[in-house]
Design a protein that fits this description.
The chain is of the alpha+beta class and about 170 residues long. It is about 30% helix and about 25% strand.
Length: about 170
């Protein structure tokens, strides 16, 4: 393995570790820890609303993005990204960094939209709920402003259904 690939893999693992650490930093004690019910509060909005803010209840997408999926980890240090845009076009970037463009058929796009809506991202756990999986793949889904991390073992069925509607290599 070349030093450049080793550096990218190490950097990716460090970023993933930092993401997990940051995700756990803001949590309050659970009812099991303190004997009292855990309170849940919604995170503050990323930007304050203004008179010129859009009136849609959905956050604005970045460049017409419908879904972004990052698959990382495993014993080979995988890092693949898929961005599906609202029009069904997509860009897949594998570890080699070369983007590949494609387009979902209208039927594939309709199926993906249906499973994304059914998945109810706002109510999915934001990170894996089971024991960590050594050398396992991590899936980071970003949809309508919600980011959900799942490993390959403890992935909710709703996310497996979403993956079933993605291009080959991300299913």
């Amino acid at each position: 393995m070349s030093p450049k690939v080793t550096h990218r893999t190490t950097t990716g693992l460090l970023l993933l570790t930092a993401l997990f650490a940051a995700a756990g930093c803001g949590s309050s004690t659970s009812s099991a820890d303190s004997g009292a019910p855990a309170s849940r509060t919604a995170p503050p909005p990323a930007v304050s609303p203004s008179a010129s803010a859009p009136t849609s209840s959905k956050p604005p997408s970045h460049d017409g993005q419908l879904l972004k999926l990052v698959v990382s980890g495993g014993f080979v240090g995988r890092h693949d990204e898929l961005v599906v845009r609202a029009d069904g076009s997509y860009t897949s970037t594998k570890r080699d960094g070369k983007p590949v463009e494609g387009r979902l058929t209208p039927a594939e796009l309709a199926g993906l939209r249906k499973t994304l809506a059914a998945a109810d991202f706002a109510h999915l756990p934001p990170r894996p709920t089971g024991k960590p999986v050594a050398d396992g793949l991590m899936y980071q889904f970003t949809y309508e402003g919600h980011v959900v991390l799942a490993d390959e073992i403890h992935q909710p069925q709703a996310l497996r259904d979403v993956r079933a509607h993605l291009p080959v290599g991300y299913r």
